[in-house]
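Per your request, structure below.
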């Protein structure tokens, strides 16, 4: 779904859930750099370095290592571990292809979760899954979110409810617009 619908927020809630923290020996979160911001080799390098920083005590010099060597370090660090890797904001199937070569499948319950604005990415990653599609909030849900952000500890004063509901409607169901 489009930006601001709450894909990353939902993924963060899952990632930080106490059961998830307990269940997975290793958790890693990387935000995928957008393709127009950097070249493919540099983007891949940033992804590998981001993963390594999440779960490996990097005591070696990575500046002279090739992307292939960095990928192998990722693979060795995850081998045999039950891990959760979140790939946030994926734009290209090519990034998926490169990364997953270095994410071992030991059939031990490891999981890879990704967020993307592009539906075809999810279909490419797992053609048997329809993924989880995020939707715009209804007017009542929008008001609930806005009220909780503005008045986290108490309820909204009666004289502000009507204007608050109008503001919530103007945000057109986008959670990010309501939070900002």
């Amino acid at each position: 779904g489009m930006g601001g619908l709450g894909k990353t927020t939902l993924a963060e809630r899952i990632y930080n859930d106490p059961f998830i923290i307990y269940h997975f020996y290793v958790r890693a979160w990387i935000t995928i750099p957008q393709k127009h911001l950097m070249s493919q080799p540099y983007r891949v390098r940033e992804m590998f370095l981001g993963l390594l920083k999440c779960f490996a005590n990097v005591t070696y010099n990575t500046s002279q290592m090739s992307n292939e060597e960095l990928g192998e370090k990722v693979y060795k660090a995850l081998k045999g571990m039950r891990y959760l890797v979140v790939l946030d904001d994926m734009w290209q199937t090519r990034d998926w292809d490169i990364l997953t070569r270095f994410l071992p499948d030991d059939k031990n319950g490891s999981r890879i979760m990704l967020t993307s604005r592009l539906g075809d990415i999810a279909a490419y990653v797992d053609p048997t899954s329809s993924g989880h599609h995020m939707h715009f909030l209804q007017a009542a849900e929008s008001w609930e979110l806005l009220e909780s952000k503005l008045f986290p500890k108490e309820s909204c004063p009666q004289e502000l409810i009507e204007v608050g509901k109008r503001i919530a409607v103007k945000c057109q169901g986008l959670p990010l617009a309501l939070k900002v």
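The mean pLDDT is 86.

Regards,
D.
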